[in-house]
């Protein structure tokens, strides 16, 4: 357990913006540091979970640094289960930096990234899944991602993992008891053990199925709008984002660079890239824009190949489609967007090729804001068809947790194989222990210091 006192700025600091800045201090000297720097007005009581009003003063010169509030949280009723104080100062840069410096001069040291949450974990305030969910909540890019992270903080991942680990420990205890006291106990119920293992495997696979959904919620989906010049790509971006992010004219080649917009579709963060029209460039600037368009398309998770309904499927559209299919990612998902349908007859789609390897066809009239909802539905259906939709929206594991669960799954399957081959009980225990260790790594009951350093290094300082 770490006993020194740490301090850090716990709020985002933006020049000339933000009304409040918070400096957080945690550790055995937190109370003494607060009493050294903070002068409470009147006769306010210094007790846990009180908010005091007063001034922060330089301890030597007694010069006032700020008019502030001081929040007191004594051990163990705090985030870290240590004494914690928070100086709630005026926002900006200078004041909070001065207060932090005073805390460091008074005996604290600057906290490392994620060290407050690490202490909460080491002191039993949080398990490892809850600690990781704290980071996910801070970095959430959509309401659904925030809800999923909050569910993790509330233990909706930790609880089933602990139950699985407890079930494996019970099986291991039964097996080892038969090894040590074979003559004193009835024979092991192998059929019952096999049934318990089968149920555990089902639950592990259900949780593993949420890995891709979790990755989507955390990282988002990158969608590139590609096509010939003047097919309405920029109009589609503007209609979809309900803004004028991209310049729209009747002149081909207006978009010279990749224009980006951040959206949320079905709870999933979506980064939409409006690319320059792909054609033979007429100048060096357009050539650079087209090169970036091709790169954006190749690095996207999904491509919206946009065509002009008036022109139909042209040779240039065919070339772009073949370029997408002939790339390093021949299975790149493509949705065909038939734009400007308000300018053509209803049966004009008959002229389009039917043998395209695409996920869906969507008709839009971007200038009239038509078809956007259908486009979003097609994107969500593509996500679901790729088995990226979690069975439970309030549970989504990350890559580390997925790797540990996969090891647990393999170990449990190996126990079943061992039972089927009627090998001695000693062999059962090897893989049971492996499964127990892997499950313990998820919640932090069995974890190395290097793993902890890797996890908490991704946190922001002050959390």
How would you describe this structure in keywords?
seven-stranded mixed β-sheet; 463 residues; alpha/beta; flat
Radius of gyration: 29 Å
> What general outline do the C-alpha atoms trace?
flat
Number of strands: 13
Succession of helices and strands: EEHEEEEHEHHHHHHEHEEHEHEEHHHH
Task: Give the termini distance in whole angstroms.
Answer: 18 Å
Helix and strand content put the structural class at alpha/beta
Largest sheet: 7 strands, mixed
Instruction: Tell me the fraction of residues in β-strands, as a range.
Output: 15-25%
Strand line-up of the largest beta sheet: 3-4-5-6-2-1-7
How much helix, percentage-wise, in residues? Answer: 40-55%
> How many alpha or pi helices?
15
Flag low-confidence runs: 245-249, 251-257, 387-393
């Amino acid at each position: 357990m770490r006993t020194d006192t740490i301090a850090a700025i716990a709020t985002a600091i933006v020049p000339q913006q933000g009304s409040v800045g918070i400096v957080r201090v945690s550790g055995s000297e937190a109370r003494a540091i607060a009493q050294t720097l903070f002068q409470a007005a009147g006769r306010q009581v210094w007790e846990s979970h009180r908010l005091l009003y007063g001034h922060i003063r330089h301890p030597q010169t007694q010069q006032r640094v700020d008019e502030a509030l001081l929040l007191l949280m004594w051990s163990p009723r705090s985030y870290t289960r240590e004494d914690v104080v928070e100086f709630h100062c005026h926002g900006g840069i200078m004041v909070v930096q001065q207060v932090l410096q005073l805390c460091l001069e008074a005996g604290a040291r600057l906290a490392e990234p994620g060290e407050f949450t690490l202490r909460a974990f080491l002191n039993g305030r949080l398990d490892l899944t809850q600690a990781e969910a704290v980071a996910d909540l801070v970095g959430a890019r959509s309401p659904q991602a925030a809800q999923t992270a909050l569910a993790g903080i509330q233990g909706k991942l930790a609880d089933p993992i602990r139950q699985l680990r407890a079930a494996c420990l019970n099986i291991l205890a039964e097996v080892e008891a038969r090894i040590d006291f074979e003559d004193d106990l009835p024979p092991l119920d192998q059929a019952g053990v096999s049934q318990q293992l089968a149920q555990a495997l089902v639950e592990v696979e259900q949780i593993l199925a949420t890995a891709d959904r979790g990755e989507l919620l955390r990282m988002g989906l990158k969608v590139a709008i590609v096509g010939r010049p003047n097919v309405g790509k920029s109009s589609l971006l503007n209609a979809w984002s309900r803004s004028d992010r991209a310049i729209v004219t009747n002149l081909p080649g207006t978009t010279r660079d990749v224009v980006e917009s951040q959206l949320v579709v079905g709870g999933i963060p979506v980064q939409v890239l409006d690319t320059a029209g792909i054609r033979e460039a007429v100048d060096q600037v357009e050539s650079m824009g087209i090169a970036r368009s091709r790169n954006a398309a190749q690095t996207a998770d999904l491509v919206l190949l946009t065509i002009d309904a008036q022109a139909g499927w042209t040779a240039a559209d065919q070339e772009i489609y073949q370029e997408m299919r002939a790339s390093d990612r021949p299975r790149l998902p493509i949705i065909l967007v038939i734009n400007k349908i308000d300018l053509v007859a209803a049966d004009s789609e008959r002229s389009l090729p039917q043998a395209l390897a695409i996920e869906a066809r969507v008709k839009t009239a971007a200038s009239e804001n038509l078809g956007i909802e259908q486009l979003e539905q097609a994107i969500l259906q593509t996500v679901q068809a790729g088995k990226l939709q979690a069975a439970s929206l309030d549970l989504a594991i990350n890559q580390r947790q997925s790797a540990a669960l996969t090891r647990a799954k393999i170990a449990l399957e190996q126990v079943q194989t061992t039972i089927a081959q009627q090998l001695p009980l000693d062999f059962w225990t090897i893989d049971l222990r492996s499964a127990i260790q892997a499950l313990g790594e998820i919640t932090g009951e069995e974890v190395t210091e290097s793993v902890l350093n890797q996890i908490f290094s991704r946190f922001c300082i002050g959390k």
